[in-house]
Amino acid sequence: MTQTDTLGPRPALPWIRLDGPEPFVEGRLCRACGARTAATHLACPACGARDSIETYRAPTTGKLHAYSIVRRSYPGVPVPFISAIVDLDDGLTLKGNLINVAAEPEALPVGMPVRMVFGDALGRTDKDGASYVAFFFEPSA
Amino acid sequence: MSENVYILGIDMLKFGKYPDRTFAQLGGEAALLALDDAGLSVHDVQAMYCGSVFGAYDMTGQAIMREIGQTGIPVTNISNACATGASAFREAWIAVKSGLYDVVLAVGVEKMPRGMLGAGHETGISLEGLFGSASMPAVFAESGMEHAGKYGTTFEQFAKVSVKNHHHSTMNPKAVYQKETPLEEVMGSEMIAYPNTKLMCSVNVDGSAAAVVVSEKKARELGLTRAIRVLASALASDPWNPRNPIMPDVNGCTQLAAKSAYEQAGIDPRDVSLVELHDCFATAELLHYENLQLCGLGEAGRLIDEGVTALGGRVPVNVSGGLLSKGHPLGATGIANMYEVALHLRGEAGARQVQGARIGLTHVVGLGTASAVHLFEKA
Ligand SMILES: [Zn+2]
User: How far is B251 from B241, CA to CA, in rounded Å?
Assistant: First the structure.
C-alpha cells in the first residue's frame, strides 16, 4: 500500500471537511455582523471584527441564484457543464457544477431548489496519484 | 494644488496583433503621439505612470523612457487588472492635482497572451469544470444571468449589445474589427458560455494609449483650444457582498466609483452625452447601464431595445466599438476609452461623432476588484 492510499482522498477545496461520518462544507460565521464565508480571513471581511469568526457545518440545501452553460473552457476540460452559483439556505454562497439536469436554459429556472452532493472529483488526481472529493449540486424538487 | 486638471494630448495605436513589437515600443509610440497631440516634448514631462498587466514585472515604464528619451524623471509602474490604464491615468491626475507637477504622462500598454483568460485556483488538481468555471466568459455570463433572473433580461437583449458595438466599430479605423454582425450572426455564433457567444466576448489584442495630463497653469499657458477638463476621477475596490468572491461582483465596485464621480463633478447622470464603458462581455454592458445610473434598476434591457445607447440615441455607449469590437488590451483599455471621449468632446470623431457632445464618461472594471470612472468636458 502506498502512503496515498492510507491517507485516502483529499478535499478538493479547503472548506470541504472529510473528518466526519459524511463529507461536509465548513462555513464561517461572524458573531459580530452575521456575515458568512467559506474562506478564512484575518478579520471579518464584512465588518472588520477580529476574533469574531466561528465555524459551522453548512446546510446541504439551497437555491440556484445564477448559472452559465459552459460550452468552451480551457483545453482538456470536458464540456458542456453547468457552472452554478448556489445560495445555501443559511445564506452561504457556493459555486459548483449543477448535475443531473439538462444543459438548457429552459431547465434552469432561477430560484430552483438544489441539494449538495459529494463525490469523487471527476477522476482527477494530483502528482502523488491522490484522489479528491468535491461537491456538486443537483435539483432537489 | 491645481484648480483643474486637463488632458492636453491623447492618442492610441490601432488595436491589433503586434508580435514583432515590444511593450516598450508599443507604449513609446503612443506616448510620442500623445506628446505630439499636446505640442510638448519628452523634456516637458515631469513624471510618468505606466499601466500594464502582463508587462507589470518588467519595468515597462522605464523601458518606454528608453524608447522616447531618458530624462531621469520619476516613473511608476501600475497593475490593476482591467482598470490598469485608468489607474495609471488617475495617478497622473493625482500628481498634477496635488500641485507637485504641471505635466505628467500616463501610458497604458499591453501585449496579450493567446487563449481564454481566467483565474485558476489549484489545490493539487485543476478546479476548472469541477466547481463550475472560472473562465471570464462564464463568470460574466453568470452576472448576466443574475440580471436575467431578477428582471427577465433576455439572450436577445444581451446579443443586441454586440450588434450595436460592432456596428459602431465600422466607423472607427482604430478598432481591430470593422465589421457588421447582424443579430442572427451574434446569436448563432459559437456558444462559449451561455448566454455569451463568441461574438459577445471581447477581443484579445495588443495595444497602447497615452495621455498628457497638465495643470490649470500649464493649460492656460499653452492654450485651452483642444484641452479636455477632468471633471472627476474615481477609483473603487469591491465593497462587502456576501456572494463575492465566490461570485465576482462587478456591480458594487462600479456603483461606488460612479457615485463618487458624479459627486465630484457635481453633475446629474442625465448630463452625460456619451459613455465608453467596460463591455468585456455583452452581458456586462447592460449591467453597467444601471451601475452607471444611465437608467433605473431593471431598465437596461429596455434601453438597448429602444436604441437609447446607439449612436443617435440619448446617451450613446461605446461608439468606438467598445472592448467587443475595438479590442481589449487590458492595460491600454482605460486610456483608450478616454481617447474616444476626447475625440467627441473636441468634435474630431468623424463619421461616429456624437453631435453636441458636452460631457463624456469612461468606465473600466477589473475582477479582484477595481473600478474606475472618469468624467470629462471640453475646456
Ligand atoms: Zn462581521
Answer: 10
